Amino acid sequence: MPGQHKARAPAHARVYVITCSDTRTAVTDDGGRILKSRLADQGHAIAGSAIVPDDPARIAQELERARELPLRSS
Prior knowledge:
- The chain has helices spanning 2-8, 30-41, 56-67, and strands at 14-20, 45-52.
- The protein is an alpha+beta fold and 74 residues long.
- Strands 1-2 form a two-stranded parallel ribbon.
- Strand 1, helix 2 (30-41) and strand 2 form a beta-alpha-beta unit.
């Protein structure tokens, strides 16, 4: 069955990258930058990204914001 599931799975995904850090900025977020680059190199669409503090409420808020993005970009 795993082979059948993999055969039907999409080859690419639309992703939203969230860096959870109290110290990273757009300039210093090397991990987020590398992750987005590698995902894009594999053909995945980057729907967006964010850096949020290590605060469960803020992380949940950003996850909800990402979930509410339209499935397809215009």
